[in-house]
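Lab notebook, bench 4. Still working through the backlog of constructs that have no structural model yet. Next entry is a single chain of 294 residues. Request: give me the C-alpha cells for it.
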Amino acid sequence: MPITIGIPFYNAESYLADAIRSVFAQTYQDWELILVDDGSTDRSLEIARSVKDSRVQVISDGQNKRLPYRLNQITSEARFDLVGRMDADDLISPTRFEKQKNILDTHPEYDLVTTGICSITNDKKPCGVRSSPGVQITGRGLLLGQCTPAHAPILGRTSWFLRNPYNTSINRIEDYELWLRAYSKNDFKVYFMTEHLYYYREEENVTLKRLLTGYAGQRKMYMEYGSLGFNRFEIPLAITKSYCKSFIVRILSACNKMDILLKQRNRDIEDQESMDMFIHEIDQVLRTKVPGLD
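Model written out:
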C-alpha cells in the first residue's frame, strides 16, 4: 500500500535537493511526495518544481504560515493511510520507510512509529547518535523530555493526524504540545525503533534563539499540562529549572561554547561498523539520481 511523504520547506535551497534524493533512494518505492513551500524567497520552490516524477506534488501559495500549518496541510492532502515527514535540511536512511511501514503493518495497536537519530555536521559527517529504546510513555516523562518521540522521523496513521492536528498558534514546540495533548486524551500509542534511520543536521538547530523559544514554550506547557505528571508543588520548581536553563544557554552563547550542548545531546559513535554504515547510507543518498534535478 502506498504511503504519503511530506517535506515542508522554507528557504532551504542549499539542502532541499538532497532531502528529495533521500525519498528517491528509499527501498520502499510505493509513495507520493508532497513538497510544501512556506513562502520561500530563495530558489527552493524552483528546485521543488524541477522534479519530474508523477508521484511528486508541489504546493505553494506564496505565504509564510509556519510549520504547524504546513504539517496539517500535508495531512489534508495525503491520499494514503500512512503519512511520514522529514525536514528539508536533513537526510534519511534508504530503509527508513520500509522498516517503519512494516512496524505499523504488524502492530495495529500503534498509531505512530519513530526512529533513532544520527546527527550529522553541516558537511554531512556523522557525529553522534541518540534514541529512546524501551521507553514507557508517562505524563511526567513527556513533560521532562525523558520519553519524547523524535518528531521528524515519525511515520503515522493519517487518521491519527486528522483527529490530532497541530496547533497552528504554537511555534517551535508544535510536536511537544501535540504529544502532550494526545496523551491527555489517551490517544498516544507510539512504537520506538532503536535503529538510527534519520540523519539530523544538528549544528544549525542548536542556536540561542531556538533554545530560548523552546524553553519559553516548555514553561507554557508546564502551566497547561503540568497536572499530567506533576503535583502542584512541583510545577513552580519545573518552571524555575527551565528559567535556569535559559540563563545557562545565554552564558554559553556569550562565551561561544554552544558546542557543549551539541555534545550533550548525543552519544559518540563508538564502533567502526556503525560509522561505516552511516557513511555508506549518506553516500548512497547523495548519489541517487532524481529526474529533473540531474
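Notes after review: The chain has a mean pLDDT of 94. Residues 208-265 form one domain. Flag for follow-up if needed.
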